[in-house]
Design brief:
single chain; alpha/beta; five-stranded mixed beta barrel; four-stranded mixed beta sheet; 14 helices; 15 strands; about 40% helix
């Protein structure tokens, strides 16, 4: 073995991060194949590489048996003991059979095999690295595009960002730097394939973990996320620490933290509400920034009827029902919104049981959002169902 090969092994270990043992195993396997192919040998052989001495040798391996059936694979006990008296039945006798010109032939024949084994080992390392990063956020550079996919360079691998996972309001150009969320890592014949997303709710979760120390250290917990990527999202947060304001921690001073995240998502607005195990409080909070004066809960159907002031109806429903739709996704409860006037006409408001949380307390959560964003209102409707119907009809058209 030449010193150049030893230098190459060292370089591969340092540059590719592949263990020298893995490379040596690949070379030895390749040399066994080369020996059998070039010298028409069918016996069992072993190739020994001595990295310290820089030598290479081929040894035939024969089983010690009482009666020989194949001289290429077996040797009698009598003949074995002529070589060394200590041999017994079932032992293996090795004899060096290295051809004189094996070095040249082996180098030519083994080159492709060694290259393939090294490539496979490298792909394995890349797969192991990225399979551990599923459901994590990474920085990437836009490398190229086609009509269906965007290809993002992550360093050692090129990730696929399908059109369905792209924010429709965003435009991309080569060399743009973007943050993406790894959704899936697969093994393929061409190596590991990484799929990423810009629309997954997990991206929003990871961005908050990066931007808000209280979430990163576990003081504040994100309970649920509802997202319409590129337009608006809602997240619910909770803490057991009475000295920490979970919503304020996420919003930041003058909305700085949430605004940073919004900018990263191309202006996507993010509503932050406080989670509660009480559906009355949680649903009321989820409809922020609108004010709520009553929430009536149907446990069996897991639905709620929400009463809001007349002038707050359009804000509660949101543009094309978006605010109510996101609130329903966030809480997991069906939400039917009624104006105060309609609720009185239907005889469902006022009632003996009133909202458990004072109106002023719910309004306090709303003010932080109104300072950070300007909310769009829709033309008032009788209920949120009108907007859901309108949205469905529009999709059918």
């Amino acid at each position: 073995m030449s010193s150049e090969l030893l230098d190459a092994l060292t370089a591969l270990e340092q540059q590719k991060g592949i263990s020298r043992d893995v490379i040596v195993d690949a070379i030895e396997a390749a040399l066994v194949t080369a020996y059998k192919r070039n010298f028409n040998q069918a016996q069992n052989v072993r190739v020994d590489l001595n990295l310290n001495k820089g030598t290479m040798a081929v040894y035939s391996r024969k089983d010690v048996v009482e009666e020989v059936e194949d001289e290429r694979l077996q040797i009698s006990l009598e003949d074995a003991q002529l070589i060394n008296p200590v041999y017994e039945l079932t032992d293996i006798v090795e004899e060096e059979v290295t051809p004189r010109d094996f070095g040249r032939i082996a180098a030519q024949t083994a080159k492709q095999v060694v290259t393939q084994r090294v490539r496979e080992a490298e792909r394995g390392l890349i797969y192991e690295e990225y399979i551990d990063r599923e459901e994590d956020i990474v920085n990437g550079i836009v490398e190229r595009m086609d009509p269906k996919n965007l290809f993002v360079g992550l360093g050692k691998v090129e990730a696929v960002l399908p059109s369905s996972e792209q924010i429709q309001t965003e435009s991309y150009a080569p060399h743009d730097r973007i943050k993406v969320y790894i959704t899936k890592v697969e093994r393929t014949a061409r190596g590991p394939q990484v799929f990423v997303s810009r629309t997954h709710p997990g991206l929003l979760r990871r961005l908050f973990e990066l931007e808000v120390p209280e979430i990163y250290d576990g003081t504040v917990e994100i309970k649920s996320i509802a997202r319409e990527a590129g337009d608006r999202s809602k997240i619910s947060v909770y803490t057991t620490n009475e000295e920490v304001d979970p919503v304020g921690s996420c919003v930041g001073s003058r909305g700085a933290r949430v605004q940073t995240i919004s900018n990263e998502l191309n202006g996507e607005k993010v509503d932050i509400v406080e989670w509660s195990e009480d559906p009355v409080i949680f649903v009321a909070n989820a409809l922020s920034p609108s004010k709520v004066i009553d929430v009536q809960v149907n446990e069996e159907e897991r639905s709620t009827t929400v009463v809001v002031p007349d002038y707050q109806l359009s804000l509660a429903i949101g543009k094309r029902g978006q605010n109510a739709r996101l609130a329903a996704k966030l809480t997991g409860w069906k939400i039917d919104i009624k104006s105060e006037t309609d609720a009185r006409e239907l005889g469902i408001y006022p009632r003996e049981e009133s909202l458990a949380v004072p109106l002023e307390e719910l309004e306090a959560n709303t003010d932080e959002f109104l300072e950070a964003y300007e909310y769009e209102e829709e033309t008032p409707a009788e209920s949120v169902e009108d907007f859901d119907l309108y949205a469905d009809e529009e999709k059918e058209d």
